[in-house]
Structure formats: structure tokens, C-alpha cells
Write a structure and sequence with these properties.
The chain has 344 residues and is of the alpha/beta class. It has a single domain, classed as Ribokinase (UDP-N-acetylmuramoyl-L-alanine:D-glutamate ligase). The protein is built from 11 helices and 15 strands. The strands form 3 sheets. Strands 1, 4, 9, 10, 11, 12, 13, 14 and 15 form a 9-stranded mixed beta sheet that branches. The radius of gyration is 19 Å and the shape is globular. 48% of the residues are buried.
Amino acid sequence: MKKTVTFGEIMLRLKSPLHERLFQSPVLEATFGGGEANVAVSLSLFGKEASFVTALPDSPVGEAAERELKKYGVNTSHIAKTKGRLGIYFLETGSCQRPSLVVYDREESCIAKAEAKDFDWSSIFKDAQWFHITGITPALSQTSSDTSLAAVKEAKKAGAVVSIDLNYRKKLWNYGKTAPEVMRELVKYADVIIANEEDIQKCLGISAQSVDVTKGHLDTDDYKKLTETVKKEFPNISRVAVTLRESISADKNNWSAVLSGKNGFYVSKKYSMEDIEDRVGGGDSFSAGLIYGLQEYTDDEQQALEYAVAASCLKHSISGDFNLTRKSEVLALAQGDGSGRVQR
């Protein structure tokens, strides 16, 4: 079985209980998560061989993070043990009109300081069918940006399909480079781009003036024009997927996506999600679903898109970064079973 490789940071996630504010109670729930790690876990649970590449401290905390990945079947054999620390992020889950809040504590983490020479790329990409990275990793530091660029170049050299989730994070781009300066170069090596309209504007510097996310309804024709512009500026890209989130409140969102594919422009069904449990990792679950769908349904881009949107919809019902959803559950929802009835 050919594998999918992901490269990025896994962090310690410290979350306040339920919908409490941070430190409202003297308790924080400790789990692990991070963009590319989340994708690897999802793919492994869908039955794919997934390898996650990162740098971790040689400490009980680093060991716990690696152990969590192994629990879900992710290959961790290419993780480098380097000097530094494990990044941390604090999370309080929003409710009603109060949005969720993320506070980062990840400077000088192992992956932020890891250099390309710390990884054996020829071994990492042996038998690799797909490589996935996000715009979060090159935002961490100049070193991490350089390593990310080296990784996509090595992936292309090895013949892997390269996908990039642009994932703009304003709080991270603070080492002197702007997101477009870095991301436009990385995207030159991509085959598949995953984003929302803000990611495209902030990471690629491509205007999305026709898209108005505040008007309560997202016009898919606007997104068709936007994805065509991306492909025109970057002719190496064969597919652009854009997620469409209509945020009514922190607890209630409408969720869908579009895909400008190799053979046409596709619009997914729309899910109304109420009483959202945890939206963190929602984009990563979409990325994993799309990677899986494009590998499995090679002649049906619509089906690949529907699988991705259904997988991500289910993630919103699960606490934690990881989408602990089985393939059969995703298929059932994609095929119309959204009743939530007890399965006996």
C-alpha cells in the first residue's frame, strides 16, 4: 500500500472544561493535536497508510505525543528527536455569540528549529503517493519555512502528489516574512490547494472581493471565479478546494465546500450543524477526507468532495483535534443518513 506523508507540528492542547473560560476552573484537559498530525490520524482511521514527520523533544512529553499518534496507527518512524520543546496551545470553546479562543505558546519548539538536514527525505518519501503540509508550519519560523520548502521539493522529486492547506494564522506570521512571500513559493510545487476565501487572500495575495461571508448566503459562482483565478496564477495546480462556513453562532454553522477539479466545478451538499461540540480540526478533517476521496474515487471528483464534507461535518461532533470517525460513518452521512439515530 502506498502511503501518505504529512509534515508539521503536533502540540500539547490544553482546553478549559466544556464551554468555560480559560482558568475559570483550576482544570485544563490535556490532549494532543496539530494540522498535519490531525490529517495523518484521520487517514489512518480511514484505512490508509499514513506517516507523520515532525521533530519532538526526547522527553516524557514528546514520548506521550508520539504514543498518541501510534495509538491510531500512524507511522512515526521518521520523527526526529531534537533539542527544544513541544509547542502548546490553549483553547476555550465558544458558545452562542462568544467565539472560541486559541492562545499559542509554541516559540522555540522543536519543529520550529528543525532543519531539512534533520530528516532523511529519500527514506521518508519512498513509496509515498501523497504529501500534505499546511501553511501553519512555514509560519512558525524562517527555519521552518526553509524546511517546508525543502520538503515539498523532495516530495515532487519523489513523484508524490502535493497538497497544501493554506491555513492562514495571523498570530504566527511574526518573524519578518509575510505569508504571500513564503506561501506563493511553496504553492509552485503543489498539485492540490485547500483553503477558505481568507486563506487565499492572506496567503496568496489574490483578491476575493466578490465573496462576502457576512451576507448570510455564500454564492458559489463567486467561488468558481476565485478558484479559476488561483489556477490561472498557478498553472501547476490541478485542483482547488474551498470550504464554505456560514457562521450563525459559535454553536451553529452551515458547512459545505466547492472543488475546482480536473474535470469540472463541483458543489457539495450543505450541512446544518447545530450544538457544535468542537470545530477545531474541522479543516484538517476536510483535508483528510479530500485526500482519501481523491485517492479512492479517482474518476468521481464529486464523490471525493462529498466524502470530505461529510467527514468534516462529523468531526464537529467530536471533542479534540482528531476526527475519530470511521469510513462507514462518513459514507453513511454522505449517502444521506444524517438522522443521528442509535445504531443497534
